[in-house]
């Protein structure tokens, strides 16, 4: 059964998120962010009337690998729940100019985090990137190809960490400069996480989502790696589900 304070908890999370991200450059941002992290760490699946369930493995490709439950959105932040089928992956992507927080509600996630490195501190693009771009463009014109046409650029990144996260783990944080690129995989069953992004994605204001492919698997972390920008993979898409939890009013 849900806890008695579930409505006040998720409402307090939303109100604290609004306070925190209304002035991300203000002097109180760090203190507000810490308070938000503490509140988010308290949230459990039952607080949102969720239980460890499907979506299970897709059969014959039917059904989205990932679903999203919208909770609320303002100009300064958005909040919702992502549900991943067993074995599903949210591909490596970025959050331009955005802060973010992620709290696992059930299941286990493997999260790989990377930082984009400024162009001035990298070497010239290696032949491996040039070859990968050429191959991708060639494959994209083939009817048998399942990958999308690449955006056509390579960039250097610092592969900072790869970790397993469960409901017992503290919230994962990302900033415009740290852990801003990440890939999320559901491990050993379905998983769900509460997600806060600030400000929300908005292509008209330069906050569009970009996808990347890792061109080399580093033997140890942290390590600098090369990434190739791609379009959204053909086997990844996100469906929608109604949010069953307490209503949030802002």
From TrEMBL:
Listed GO MF terms: metal ion binding; oxidoreductase activity, acting on single donors with incorporation of molecular oxygen, incorporation of two atoms of oxygen
GO CC terms of this entry: mitochondrion
Keywords: Dioxygenase, Iron, Metal-binding, Oxidoreductase
Matching InterPro entries: PCO/ADO, RmlC-like_jellyroll, RmlC_Cupin_sf
CDD domains, A to Z: cupin_ADO
Domain of life the protein comes from: Eukaryota
Name of the molecule in the record: AEDO dioxygenase
Provenance organism: Geococcyx californianus (Greater roadrunner)
């Amino acid at each position: 059964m849900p806890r008695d304070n579930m409505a006040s908890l998720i409402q307090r999370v939303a109100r604290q998120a609004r306070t925190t991200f209304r002035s991300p450059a203000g002097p109180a941002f760090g203190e507000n962010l810490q308070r938000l992290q503490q509140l988010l760490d308290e949230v459990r699946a039952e607080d949102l009337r969720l239980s460890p369930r499907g979506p299970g493995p897709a059969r014959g490709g039917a059904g989205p690998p990932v679903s999203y439950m919208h909770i609320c959105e303002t100009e300064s932040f958005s909040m919702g729940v992502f549900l991943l089928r067993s074995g599903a992956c949210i591909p490596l992507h970025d959050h331009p100019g955005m802060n973010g927080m992620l709290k696992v509600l059930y299941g286990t996630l493997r999260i790989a985090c990377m930082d984009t490195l400024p162009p001035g501190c990298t070497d010239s693009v290696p032949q491996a990137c040039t070859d990968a771009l050429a191959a991708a463009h060639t494959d994209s014109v083939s009817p048998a190809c399942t990958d999308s046409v690449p955006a056509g650029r390579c960039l250097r990144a610092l592969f900072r960490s790869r970790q397993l996260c469960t409901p017992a783990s503290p919230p994962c944080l990302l900033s415009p400069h740290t852990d801003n690129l990440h890939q999320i995989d559901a491990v050993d069953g379905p998983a769900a996480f509460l997600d806060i992004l600030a400000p929300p994605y908005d292509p008209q204001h330069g906050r569009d989502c970009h996808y990347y492919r890792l061109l080399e698997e580093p033997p140890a972390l942290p390590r600098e790696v090369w990434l190739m920008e791609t379009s959204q993979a053909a086997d990844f898409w996100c469906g929608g589900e109604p949010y069953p939890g307490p209503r949030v009013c802002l």
